[in-house]
Each structure stands twice: as C-alpha cells, then as structure tokens.
C-alpha cells in the first residue's frame, strides 16, 4: 500500500484568493500563522519542568487545498461537518487535461469511456499546480458547461481540480459550483501532484475537520493506491 500527497502546504502568507470591491479595490486573503504562546512563554505554567507551544492560525476557509460543501453555494445546503466519511473517501479517476492555455475550457471528450464514474472522485489534472504562487496561477483553464452536465448525469461523487477555481472566475453565475453543490457533488480545489495518479487505481481521501456552520475547509487530500 502506498500514498501520494495531493495537498499544498498550509503556510503563513500562503497564496490565497482575491476579492474586488465595487470601487475596484482588490483585497488579498491569506493565512496568518504565529505562536499563541511559545515554549519559552509556557515554562512558567509548568514550574519550568516542561514547555509547550500552542499555535494560532487565522484564515478564510476557502484557502489552500480545500473542500467545498453545498452550504458554500446554498444557505440551506449541508455544511462541511455534515457528510459521512464514506462520502469523502472515494475511488478515484484522474483525467488528463494537461496542455490547455489560460481561460481555455475543457470539453466532454476528455472523459474516459472505459471507467465507471458513478460515485467516483473525478480529478482533473490541468498541470496548473506548477504555477502555484505565481500570477499565472490566477488565469487558468476550466471545465465547460457540457462537461459539468455530463458529470452530473454520471452521478459522480466529487470533482477535484489543480486550479484555484473549478469555475471560470470571470463568470459570476459559477455554473460548476451551482450545479455540483446543488446535486451534493463535493468540490476540491487547489490540488497538486495529480501527475502521479495516471495509470493507477486509487482511493481519494478528502476529509476536513468536522466543523459546523462552515462552508468550506482546508484538507490534507491524499490518494491511496491499491
């Protein structure tokens, strides 16, 4: 049995997302990681006989390699703590989508015709993780409306991408989030290392902490090879 890590490192001032206000002001979001108290600061609590660090992290939940729940799109949808484990540990299928350019859409012809997709984690390897932490990462290829429809029809369990967004961020209707999360098809964004999955039989683990009233959450995504 072997494993492949499919997650970016969660770090202080890591790449995050941007939001643009009506006046054109752009705000960058990231993670902030620092000691809540250090080993040195804690010694006095334990009479100098031991010491511990407790770490404080502040972040928006749609950062890093993360899972979107239906609540992310729909106020009445299930939140990130609601799914059962077996909904987030799924047999996987990797789709080779490498070679596309920025803002190029991916069609249905890439889906394998010899693989079962029902209740599978379908992961799209655009090869875009090589642009992580660069400006190029923010202008990425994405899946087409026709491909979204096909994945819904196939009743997949989860869709993952190695880009910052499964949707074209220029499209405010967000068709992939809208369709997938309405059908309770979970979404994982900002994956990495998908090259290692080609030609392999694997299970995807995409389990977040059990957080209530939470729309999304970073995960330690990984694949287990049979």
Keywords:
226 residues; mainly beta; Glucose Oxidase, domain 1; 15 strands; 27% strand; globular; hydrolase; KFase/CYL; hydrolase activity; Cyclase family protein
Total strand count, please? Answer: 15
Strand order of the largest sheet: 1-15-13-7-9-11-12-6-14
SSE class: mainly beta
Provide the low-confidence segments as ranges. none
The value of Rg in angstroms is 19 Å
Q: What is the succession of H and E elements? A: EEEEHEEEEEEHEHEEEE
- Per CATH, which architecture of the largest domain? 3-Layer(bba) Sandwich
Q: Total domains, how many?
A: 2
Please state the overall shape, judged from the principal axes of the Cα atoms.
Answer: globular
Largest sheet: 9 strands, mixed
Helix content: under 10%
Strand residue percentage = 25-35%
CATH topology of the largest domain: Glucose Oxidase, domain 1
Mean model confidence by pLDDT: 97
Give the CATH H-level superfamily of the largest domain: Putative cyclase
Q: How many alpha or pi helices?
A: 3
Instruction: For the record, give the distance between the C-alpha atoms at the N and C termini, rounded to a whole number.
Output: 6 Å
CATH top level assignment of the largest domain: Alpha Beta
GO molecular function: hydrolase activity
Keywords: Hydrolase
Protein name: Cyclase family protein
EC number: 3.5.-.-
């Amino acid at each position: 049995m072997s494993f492949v890590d499919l997650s970016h490192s969660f770090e202080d001032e890591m790449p995050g997302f941007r939001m643009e206000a009506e006046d054109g002001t752009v705000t960058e979001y990231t993670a902030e990681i620092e000691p809540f108290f250090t080993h040195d600061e804690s010694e006095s609590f334990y009479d100098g006989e031991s010491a511990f660090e407790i770490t404080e992290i502040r972040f928006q939940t749609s950062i890093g390699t993360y899972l979107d729940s239906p609540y992310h799109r729909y106020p009445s949808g299930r939140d990130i703590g609601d799914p059962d484990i077996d909904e987030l540990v799924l047999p996987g299928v990797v789709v080779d989508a490498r070679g596309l350019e920025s803002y190029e859409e991916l069609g249905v012809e890439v889906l394998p015709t010899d693989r079962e997709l029902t209740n599978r984690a379908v992961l799209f390897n655009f090869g875009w993780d090589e642009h992580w932490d660069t400006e190029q990462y923010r202008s990425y290829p994405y899946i087409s409306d026709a491909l979204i429809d096909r994945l819904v029809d196939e009743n997949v369990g989860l869709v993952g991408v190695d880009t910052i967004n499964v949707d074209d961020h220029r499209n405010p209707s967000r068709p992939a989030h809208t369709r997938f999360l309405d059908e309770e098809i979970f979404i994982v964004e900002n994956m990495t290392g998908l090259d290692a999955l080609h030609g392999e039989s694997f299970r995807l683990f995409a389990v977040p902490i059990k957080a209530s009233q939470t729309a999304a959450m970073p995960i330690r995504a990984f694949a287990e090879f049979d």
